[in-house]
Specification:
The complex is a heterodimer of chains A (260) and B (485). Chain A contains 13 helices and no strands. Chain A has 260 residues and is mainly α. Chain B has 19 helices and two strands. The chains are: A mainly alpha (260), B mainly alpha (485).
Chain lengths: 260, 485
């Protein structure tokens, strides 16, 4: 007796049934119409695996009542913030830090307002994260001064004893390239981010002026840096995270209190 | 094992000599090497979490860059090569025909290995798209698409020239793997290139998140589940020398699984700002998914009816039983974690890491080891150089998984509870995040221990195969030359 026979493999004449399967199962309709017809079987499999995805994903593009908030005052990331966001992706920050405050009492107490859909409108890629080895960062904007972030990136344990975060001291030395950031902005403009002037000159100027503000803040804390360092872009991004949403949501909360 | 080996030899059919087993051997070698590499990177990043100086202060060795290397290596390099090795080996026999085109088989092999090498270079350099298990940059994504098409053409052409009319259940699961991974990969990877190494997805915000977790969850479903169920349906009956328990059950759970799995993605986004109906659909379908998952588990375990005495002595069968049992456990745990209230506690914690590894180490890893051990003597025509090591490997891996998952459950529950704990005044009981982090340390060392045991077992397996293939093992009986041809 062939071992193949016991494992669903037929003998060469194609007529011997599998062990453990009755003759009737082998003459069954599904075997005749489906399990002997590879093309049809594959097509039906493709249909079966498509339905769930279509039902769940297509409405995300078509429905208008999802609170995506076209009218919400969310501004796209500035050139320096885009550069910082790219660094956040490069270093895999999202693997330890979420950007999604859940609507739970403890989360709101710890991090602030829970995250709304429209706050992510210009997030390409999304960086919600899936793990909190460190705290959530969606409301990190304004929580600490620029110098705190600088020193924390250089040596996390100097600022936060017991931290398990790696040091990112190379960001203090490396520089960002405005011409690369220009390309980023042009790509984002093509998918609908409302940037107006994406000439390299303008992008460089915007990066320099925003970067110099951070450099000035750092200088007042006794730290010397220049506007084009990676750390400056990173600080710009972190100081932006959740800022627009917080402004809108705290305003809304204030209005509610006034009404009461 | 000797007895089942000789049974196989007796069953050798005249057409067997025509099968392309060379490509199977190539995938075999790649599987063992990448498996050890991927698990080693896992142990390294586990050490980094327990002891931060292991990040070494270098950009390319920091946790954030090595973690994607670990996940990509174990999923696409280790598990991927196992799938291909098992598919190329079993489909030729199930369809009684040689692969349609040997050149395409080799293009597939070398293309896939080149993609892995490219991943191993780019990820530590920080070149990433940031989507979990879809991190690779857009040029590599295109290469994956091309290699996948090559594989699919060869796969379906081989089915077309098959010498048996009926398609065995393993082939159904392989088909769902080939088709679905293509769909998932292409849809999730659509992006606007910026430079050769940077791109932005065409989707934004929560739409991007939903597309990603539709992909991410079904990468688990159709890369780590359906092909492995196909492998189970071929190799478990072969190793146990028993027929599959129920043909009808295999039909029902196949169609139910491929239809239901795809809906479950949004359970990764519970309590996010994703529309409530999408979250609820994800949760409901995740819970329903227990049924077809357990259908597969039961069909696997019940196939061992009449062979349980051999399970006690045959390490290959022991590994298969543990694998299928872990499949059952993690496909019960997953739906439980998809319930909103449970997810509220489990999400973001080590519990999720424990869950993933009970599936990855328990189901995927153990089944892979079993297949490799079962196949090696048949493929290379030699008995294993160290047969007793297989049992040692089994126990190292099993105890390692238990230590790993128990440590992660404990850590996950602890951090989940302490993050949310409030005192009598309604304020956070643990306002300092790092206080909770510090309490996790013993569990992180335990996890490192469990993972290291698992890695040591895999290294023993590698040495065993190395010495077997190099000729330390006795030739298997009878007629090894004919079987190896």
């Amino acid at each position: 007796m062939s071992d193949d026979n016991r494992t669903g493999n037929e003998q060469a004449d194609g007529k011997t049934p599998q062990d453990g399967v009755s003759e009737s199962a082998y003459g069954a309709w599904h075997r005749r119409v489906l399990e002997g017809r590879a093309g049809l079987f594959a097509a039906l499999t493709a249909v079966a695996i498509s339905i769930g995805g279509l039902v769940e994903i297509v409405p995300m593009f078509t429905a208008t009542d999802m609170g995506v908030g076209e009218d919400m005052p969310i501004t796209p990331y500035t050139p320096l913030e885009v550069a910082g966001r790219d660094l956040y992706v490069r270093e895999g920050c999202y693997l330890c830090h979420s950007q999604m405050v859940r609507p739970m009492r403890a989360e709101v107490l710890r991090y602030g307002e829970w995250s709304r859909a429209w706050e992510y409108r210009y997030d390409r890629p999304f960086l919600l994260g899936s793990r909190r080895l460190g705290p959530d960062l969606h409301r990190i904007a304004g929580k600490y001064p620029d110098a705190w972030h600088y020193e924390h990136m250089e040596d996390p344990r100097a600022i936060a004893p017991g931290s398990i975060m790696p040091a990112y001291s190379w960001m203090l030395e490396r520089t960002v390239d405005p011409s690369r950031v220009t390309k980023s902005l042009r790509a984002l403009q093509r998918v609908g981010h409302p940037y107006v002037d994406v000439s390299e000159e303008n992008v460089r100027g915007a990066m320099r002026s925003q970067g110099n503000e951070i450099v000035a803040n750092l200088r007042s804390a006794g730290i010397e840096s220049t506007w084009d360092r990676e750390i400056i872009a990173m600080i710009a991004y972190l100081q932006r995270l959740g800022r627009d949403g917080k402004a809108v949501l705290s305003g809304a909360a204030g209005e509610q209190e006034e009404e009461q | 094992m000797e007895s089942s080996a000789s049974a196989v030899m007796q069953g050798t059919s005249p057409v067997r000599a025509n099968y392309d087993d060379q490509v199977v051997k190539m995938f075999f070698t790649a599987t063992v090497i990448w498996g050890i590499v991927g698990m080693l990177v896992g142990v390294i990043i586990a050490l980094q979490l327990a002891w931060w100086p292991a990040n070494l202060g270098l950009p390319w060795t920091s946790f954030g860059r090595l973690r994607p290397l670990h996940t990509n290596a174990v999923i696409f390099a280790f598990a991927g090569n196992v799938c291909f090795l098992g598919i190329y080996h079993s489909m030729q026999r199930l369809l009684k025909t040689r692969m349609w085109n040997d050149t395409l088989s080799r293009v597939h092999f070398w293309g896939w290995q080149a993609i892995i090498v490219a991943a191993a270079i780019t990820l530590p350099l920080g070149m990433t798209q940031s989507k979990e298990y879809a991190e690779l940059i857009w040029p590599i994504d295109i290469a994956i698409t091309v290699v996948w098409v090559v594989f699919a053409v060869n796969f379906f052409a081989t089915i077309a020239i098959r010498k048996v009319s009926h398609l065995y259940v393993a082939i159904w699961f392989y088909m769902s793997f080939v088709i679905t991974i293509a769909v998932l990969h292409i849809v999730n990877s659509l992006a606007i290139p910026v430079t050769a190494t940077l791109s932005y997805p065409i989707y934004a915000g929560l739409t991007d998140a939903l597309v990603q977790w539709w992909y991410g969850h079904n990468a688990v479903g159709f890369f780590l589940t359906t092909p492995f169920l196909g492998l189970m349906y071929y190799y478990l009956p072969r190793a146990a020398d028993r027929p599959v328990y129920s043909y009808r059950l295999s039909i029902i759970h196949f169609w139910a699984l491929v239809f239901l799995y795809i809906w479950a993605g949004p359970h990764h986004l519970l309590y996010s700002a994703l529309p409530e109906w999408a979250q609820t659909l994800g949760m409901v379908f995740s819970i329903i998914l227990i049924a077809p998952s357990w259908g597969g588990m039961l069909n696997g375990l019940l196939t061992l009816r009449g062979a349980w005495d051999r399970v006690r002595t045959d390490p290959v069968l022991k590994m298969m039983v543990v694998a299928v049992s872990f499949y059952g456990m993690s496909t019960f745990e997953g739906p439980m974690m998809s319930i909103r209230a449970v997810n509220g506690l489990a999400h973001y914690t080590n519990w999720v890491i424990g869950h993933v590894h009970s599936g990855a180490l328990g189901w995927v890893g153990m089944l892979s080891f079993a297949i490799l051990y079962w196949l090696a003597p048949r493929l290379y025509g030699r008995e294993l150089a160290h047969p007793k090591w297989v049992n040692t490997h089994f126990w190292l891996a099993t105890i390692g998984i238990v230590i790993y998952t128990v440590a992660m459950w404990a850590a996950g529950l602890m951090e989940g509870l302490q993050w949310r704990a409030l005192n009598d005044a309604g304020q956070l009981a643990n306002p300092i995040f790092l206080d909770i982090t510090a309490r996790l340390e013993p569990f992180l060392w335990l996890r490192l221990l469990g993972g290291t045991m698992y890695l040591v077992g895999a290294i023993m397996m590698g040495i065993n195969f190395w010495q077997t293939i190099r000729g330390s093992g006795k030739p298997s009986e009878p007629a090894p030359a004919a079987a190896a041809a």
